Amino acid sequence: xENFRFLSPTEIVFGRGTESLTGELVKxxxxxxxxxxxxxSIKRTGLYDxxxxxxxxxxxxxxxxGNVQPNPRLSLVQEGIELCRREGINFILAVGGxxxxxxxxxxxxGVPYPGDVWDFYAGKAEPKETLPVGVVLTIAAAGSxxxxxxxxxxxxxxxxxxxxxxxxxxxxxxxxxxxxxxxxPYQTACGVADIMAHIMERYFSPTGDHxxxxxxxxxxxxxxxxxxxxxxxxxxxxNARAQIMRAGTLAHNDxxxxxxxxxxxxxxxxxxxSAIYDLAHGAGLAIVxxxxxxxxxxxxxxxxxxxxxxxWDVDVNFENPEAAAxxxxxxxxxFFTDIGLPTRLSHADIGADRxxxxxxxxxxxxxxxVGQLVKLTRRxxxxxxxxxV
Length: 389
Ligand code: NZQ
Ligand code: ZN
What we know:
The chain is an alpha/beta fold. It folds into 2 domains: 11-179, 3-Layer(aba) Sandwich (Rossmann fold), CATH 3.40.50; 185-387, Dehydroquinate synthase-like - alpha domain (Dehydroquinate synthase-like, alpha domain). The chain has 15 helices and 8 strands. Helix 10 (265-277) packs across helix 11 and helix 14 (355-361) packs across helix 15 (378-387). Zinc ion binds next to helix 7.
């Protein structure tokens, strides 16, 4: 087991009606805030009014910045930084999903920094301070409500890049599963795929012999799979929504990777798809992850057989472990299809004409390779994109 440090300071305020506590939570940090949100779902569902009313009750002064797009853009982050500086704001409330939260985190580190906030995402500088960020979560997916990550797209070159610092973990996350009842089925499914991908990135680790983490990952995956079928059948199933929401945080607050390193190649490859085609991140993962598995499984057949057997109940055929491993990958793909996700680029109307460009742009996080279970070169990345066509 690797040595590790684990910091998860986010206060989780979970359950029905908890958005009414937002004003009380915010008031601990500030009396004037930036209220950051997306393209309007929170106005349609009435959440905007409820959060505003709670803030008003606690005398919190609000400056608004909406219009965060999925795959959040650098230009709006820069607008938010200027707005906070001009208005003397010291706290950001993100009401929405991963895109709104990531945009809020970027604004948070950008306000005290005299240079260009993109320096952090380009790896040219490290943030030393941030404005605190609080969250009211509306979709179980990215896990950004408690993660140390923020992913932003720079329109100049359509580069989607992430940062990872404990500093940017939100101070609180209000999580009411009822808020996710209004999600379109496709967004629910994208969230499920992202949650599973966060667990699988940690599970397919080159650091073996960690039964505790293996079992936690397998159990969380199994719970997400069965509850995904439940919410697809009944979007108002509170307990199923609640379990997926809990899993979304657990999948990405790093508890499931304590003591071992994760892979993360599929995330890097996916980011190039959603940067160019503006596809939902979870849909991109449903396409890339099975392709990555088919390309690398022979390097560690035992781990893929374990995944097939323990997560997907595949009978283990000891005479032919490769067939058992492939059966698990096929079951994963079938599950994504069952919940309405694309598993090939063509299912998302994406052609094969820009694969070279995506392979060129894919961030090689180890210098000249990406991923840990197998260190993939640019050529490998291109082959995986080809498998995903
Ligand atoms: O913008 P609005 O109108 O609010 O609509 C959103 C958006 O269109 C809608 N939505 C959200 N909650 C809703 C709802 N519609 C109806 N009812 C609700 N309750 O759903 C759409 C998607 O929202 P978004 O925030 O983009 O989803 P998600 O949480 O999946 O976030 C995706 C972003 O997070 C990044 C992804 O790359 C992507 O940019 N990630 C962030 C991570 C992190 N910070 O830790 C880790 C992930 O790996 C991921 O990369
Ligand atoms: Zn993700």
